[in-house]
Amino acid sequence: MWLHVDAAHGGSACLSSKYKHLVKGLDRADGIVWDAHKMMFVPALCAFVFYRNREHRFETFRQNAPYLFDPSAPGMAEYDSGLKTIECTKRAAAFGLWGVWSMFGRQLFADMVDVTFDLGRVFYEKLCEADDFEALHEPECNIVMFRYTPESLRDFTKEQIGDFQLEIRRQIIQSGEFYIVQNKSEGIGAVRVTIINPLTEASHLDALMETIRETGRRIIG
Ligand SMILES: Cc1ncc(COP(=O)(O)O)c(C=O)c1O
Questions:
Q1: Distance between CA 62 and CA 71 in Å, rounded?
Q2: pLDDT in tens, 12-39
Q3: Cβ 35 under 6 angstroms from ligand 1
Q4: Ligand 1: which atom is nearest the Cα of residue 7?
Q5: Fewer CB within 10 Å of terminal CB in the chain, N or C?
Q6: 112-220 architecture in CATH?
Q7: Among the atoms of ligand 1, which is closest to the Cα of residue 45?
Q8: In what order do the strands lie in the sheet with 47-51?
């Protein structure tokens, strides 16, 4: 049996001395997917698949195409990325990460994880301090799920409160001011932020909460 881990987002925590304990055990996986176009802030697409056993690279995407690959020279396969991906021709996407890493070093990426994870905590505290917001979990990283639940919703059913969150999200996205994501908690609609831009500041999060309030008030009328 294989253990594959979708560490597309969270895998970057490995680079942070402060937060790497959150992904303890990741080294025991047989396969890991990791996206530098998420927490590493490298332009998409820059995704990696790591295998514990390098031979598995070939088993995963085995293809039979004698006009492309030469089975009589297995050593040459090392040079052919077409054997290790679902695509054949592709751009060398890894250079996006290599370029930044070689210029600035690993610490830049560690800092990005620390800054955005820390800000997730700041946002959570802001939500807890506000009477009209409800944080739905204590965040471990830069993702925080919550609801806007002002006093004026007191006669709403749970489902209506969930739908209200989704309507707020739709309107905010259409306004172009912020991009937030919908989610569900215990089957009821909620919204979620992923703080991925290291230039995000606490004041942006205040502005987001204010925009949610204004949008919510407009919807309730
Ligand atoms: C854990 C995880 N896996 C996979 C994906 C899909 O990523 P992409 O659309 O970049 O392939 C996401 C997207 O946010 C994610 O958070």
A1: 12
A2: 999 999 999 999 999 999 999 999 999 9
A3: yes
A4: 1
A5: N
A6: Alpha-Beta Complex (3.90)
A7: 10
A8: 4-6, 31-35, 47-51
